[in-house]
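G., before I forget:
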Amino acid sequence: MSDEFSRIEEIKRRLLTDSNEVQITIGDDGAVLTPSDASQILSVDAQVEGIHFCRDFATWNDIGYRSFVAALSDLAAMGAQPRVALVSLILPIEFADNDLYCLIDGISEAATAYRSPVVGGNLSAGAQMSITTTVIGQSRKEALTRNGARPGDAIYLTGRVGRAALGLRCLQNDKEARGIDFVHCWRRPRARIAEGLKLARLASAAIDISDGLLQDLSHVCRASNVNAEINSDAIPLDETYCDLAKELGHYPLALALTGGEDYELLFTAPRDTPIEGLGTRIGRIVEGTGKVVVLDERKRVLTFKNAGYRHWQNK
Amino acid sequence: MSDEFSRIEEIKRRLLTDSNEVQITIGDDGAVLTPSDASQILSVDAQVEGIHFCRDFATWNDIGYRSFVAALSDLAAMGAQPRVALVSLILPIEFADNDLYCLIDGISEAATAYRSPVVGGNLSAGAQMSITTTVIGQSRKEALTRNGARPGDAIYLTGRVGRAALGLRCLQNDKEARGIDFVHCWRRPRARIAEGLKLARLASAAIDISDGLLQDLSHVCRASNVNAEINSDAIPLDETYCDLAKELGHYPLALALTGGEDYELLFTAPRDTPIEGLGTRIGRIVEGTGKVVVLDERKRVLTFKNAGYRHWQNK
């Protein structure tokens, strides 16, 4: 196994990219960005082995890729364009050089795909592997926040939810081949950057769905001091998804509303806003104090055991 | 124990500060900074329990404070003014709320002292406690880097080194009362921000000493493609330090040159630069390819077992 500084040299080589956003990159005490008069937007996300991922269910390449996308997704939710990122790794003593470089290559692939070069980071020894990614984006418009939803707004969802959670359950139940498309959603999620940039001038509020639709929507409701009503029959679910979810013992709607890690965007906008095909309308904002209710086609309230994932509560 | 979101609310309350650098702070998907046309400088540092600190040797308040200063020290070495920070915590299930809030108060104390408010972060469950701090600073001058040292430059050191390492050894040997001043250096280090800002227009290269003077100087030498000669008798050591180091079985000079975590700055400048009392001259830069030698008063080369701390090499 190589020591800290040999590893940094090799990582630097693998991550080196030309970017006119950057004056000084990996290898000094800090990275220096090219001056910009736009608002800078910052976010940090950590992925911990055994909590957010498990090495049996994904290659190190996938784990690197998805950790990076998870961090970028917060920039999408703010309507920001990614600029650069920093990656801080804690690695156990037995973590092999080759695994490290596969991880870095996965990170590099995502950094290239989203044009957000890694300009710095940190390596530390530790008992449990973790990846902490800081992302810096920018915006020339007002940032999209969680607190702008108003009674009368419609609630929209980009893409479909529950698919990554179903993929993870396929892996946990030894059904990888059967659910390979869903497994791919979990291993290689995408951040809705382009959609977020468009929404910056259309939406009244937005959040990315990392922990589960109901839970993430409740953050918007609390921040905006409103309630939300979700129409269960408006949630986009397809037959393949429903069949496989049932086969694995899950209620398809519940998994869609509470399963996380799809990194779709949930947003609100006044009803007459032309949202240009950016999402499916799934409900509406009403007066209230931060609650989310789900209604079936006959307007009866549906209840769910958990709204989504939260640390120190979920087992 | 509170769940993730209750903890975030309480942390937000404890960290809330007014700052005209910030448009949106903790509580959304990302933080938004006020636009600035200066160069933004980024760095990240992780402190892991059992590697960088041990809960027997410091309060959570101290651990929070020093983790923040360690991160800011990289901005000092770049000649940058701190602006804001993000703090990502991994906390074991048994980590108590009260310990968490003591940690946050220590972070808050450092954030206030260095006018660098915490504007975001992340909480995650995990087996081993760690603190990952991202700092964002800015500079209107050219950043101080590691690669500008030239043959003929003098090498300088702010303050004194070895003191934090001696403090840690006092704690490890049950001599806290005997070495309380040194223990304080380890528990409550300071980042040389003001010195870094002045050095931005004076120094040819700089680095902060986190891992040990010899090792950190060797980074400067490799980045600048030069050698360094340190005069051992120029290293500032006082009698109290030397006596206690010897009492604990350490060669005072070796501990000063290889012990880390003082967060002093090491810098180089052409010999005739008026460095305004910012440091002690301890050696010179000569032609070479990245080596550091230490000479005694008769110009004999002294050798040391380890130059400093590096992960996956030091035990």
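The first strand of chain B starts at residue 22 and ends at 24. The CA atoms of residues 38 and 140 of chain B lie 5 Å apart.

More on Monday.
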